[in-house]
Amino acid sequence: MTPRHTRGRAVIDLRSDTVTRPDAEMRAAMAAAEVADDILDGDPTTRALEERGAEMLAVEAALWVPSGSMGNAIALAVHLRPGDRFVAPRLSHVVEYELGAVSWLTGALPRELPWSVRPGCIEAAVISRTVSSDRPYDALRDRLLCLENTHNAAGGTVTSPQEHREVVTAAREAGMLVHLDGARLWNAAVAAKTSLPKLTSGVDSVQVCLSKGLGAPMGSLVCGSADFVRQARRVRKMLGGAVRQSGVVAAAGLVALGRVDRLEEDHRKASLLAAGVRDLGWEVPEPETNIVMAKVPDADGLVRNLDRIGVGVTVLAGKVRMVTHCDLSEGDVRDALVRIKRLATFGEEA
Ligand SMILES: *Cc1c(COP(=O)(O)O)cnc(C)c1O
């Protein structure tokens, strides 16, 4: 675990945008939230958050859930049953980082598709060529496509509105439903300079996180048609995800929804960070959003050394991952680069 201070210096925590803590404005909104028992009567602040989220994403309805993983699991539990298969780009969160919860809950099996266009993106032609819901009665049925925008393990890569449209159309033509894991969909919209509805169009359900770059302490929205949300609400209760005075955290979510535009700053900081470590010879593609992925010879060893000098990073998909966020200023990013350069020059005594 990364300590908050090391040798008297504050730790610069680039492990994830989930480390962001609610600021004074958010805490004030939480303290002042009007609340009620959401299971018995409905919680007014949670309702307001769900309505605002649905409006921003241009979907009929939204449901607050405690985490993104639960949001994905609920959506896929509504859509899938035993004998089904769901397809997703390689290294998708729902396949690799949710412990197989979808298969546990539904009996459906995953199938990963290659990143044939560029990192994190699958190609419409690959779907048309390889996927079909019209298979022999004794074969697994490809029932659903699960997209991820931005794609986390690929390095926060963006699927553009046009690519989104093409892939969704191909999935529909193959007889599949579409779920979008939009944990960082906000970042995708800001980076692609497009509107959120262009990135949700045609999907049957979408999950978005309030707890990452937007800075809420917890919570996601899982969204779709009114009928989808009716079913999702029942599954949420089955999983123990229906909570009582959820308005306390929903209030933070409402503040978070007003902070989409400032993600641009995180993207700029990621670009600055990437340029700095590239100067040291690290192999780093230009970040599209707030995630920097570096290919280095010994990722685990480097993470340990960085930890000693107060720079928190993680290893993901064999690479060093660094994530910029609102709790770090541009000055903090420059400070991290100074520390990393000292480590490169003087070794572990930096
Ligand atoms: C973070 C994340 C989730 C879910 O996150 P929780 O930690 O369960 O809230 C889902 N998908 C992607 C791509 C993510 O990055």
From TrEMBL:
Alphabetically ordered keywords of this record: Aminotransferase, Pyridoxal phosphate, Transferase
Gene3D superfamilies: Aspartate Aminotransferase, domain 1, Type I PLP-dependent aspartate aminotransferase-like (Major domain)
InterPro entries noted in UniProt: ArAA_b-elim_lyase/Thr_aldolase, Low_specificity_L-TA-like, PyrdxlP-dep_Trfase, PyrdxlP-dep_Trfase_major, PyrdxlP-dep_Trfase_small
Cofactor requirement: pyridoxal 5'-phosphate
Domain Aromatic amino acid beta-eliminating lyase/threonine aldolase: 13-296
Stated family: Belongs to the threonine aldolase family.
Name of this chain's protein: Aminotransferase class I/II-fold pyridoxal phosphate-dependent enzyme
Organism in which the protein naturally occurs: Streptantibioticus parmotrematis
